[in-house]
């Protein structure tokens, strides 16, 4: 975990990784609200490569995703295809939240090995000293289709919390 008060070389590395992640996501991410309060988790492989990155920030509110009614779907593949195509909507009712996942990324060759899940577990026990965050206290920033599929599985519901969904206007 890299914290804002860590040495410059570590912060520089985090900046480089964030830039690469933003390019990989392929669109302009909402800017971080307050750099001095972010926590960055890096997942380092056995051969010492950064294969996962999670950037978290303090937030106050999240908004619940409104789940669409699924058409009759026969296979898992169909479900994924449907999820990728459809837009998502969320409630306008703010709900208290503590931790915003601004970015979560895993190297493409290493996906579906529970790296993102392990990074979130680590985040939950380290974001606030001495407390373990519940899944209800976490929100995802403007999730991508991959992010939505992951968050639905991780949170155990498609109605997880999101924030930052209109160019950061709703962030706190
Ligand atoms: N399609 C369908 N289900 C997915 C999924 C996908 N692309 N990614 C994750 N899941 C679900 C699966 O149920 C998975 O369990 P399983 O592999 O046993 O079926 C479960 O979530 C846990 O996934 P995990 O292995 O912990 O996730 P990951 O390490 O592959 O990382 C992302 C997930 C989203 C971080 C990764 O796909 C990624 O980096 N994508 C590109 C960047 C991005 O879009 N980030 C999200 C920003 S909100």
Automatic annotation (TrEMBL):
<feature type="domain" description="N-acetyltransferase ESCO acetyl-transferase">
    <location>
        <begin position="95"/>
        <end position="163"/>
    </location>
</feature>
<dbReference type="InterPro" id="IPR028009">
    <property type="entry name" value="ESCO_Acetyltransf_dom"/>
</dbReference>
<dbReference type="GO" id="GO:0061733">
    <property type="term" value="F:protein-lysine-acetyltransferase activity"/>
</dbReference>
<dbReference type="GO" id="GO:0007064">
    <property type="term" value="P:mitotic sister chromatid cohesion"/>
</dbReference>
<dbReference type="GO" id="GO:0005634">
    <property type="term" value="C:nucleus"/>
</dbReference>
<dbReference type="GO" id="GO:0000785">
    <property type="term" value="C:chromatin"/>
</dbReference>
<dbReference type="Pfam" id="PF13880">
    <property type="entry name" value="Acetyltransf_13"/>
</dbReference>
<protein>
    <recommendedName>
        <fullName>N-acetyltransferase ESCO acetyl-transferase domain-containing protein</fullName>
    </recommendedName>
</protein>
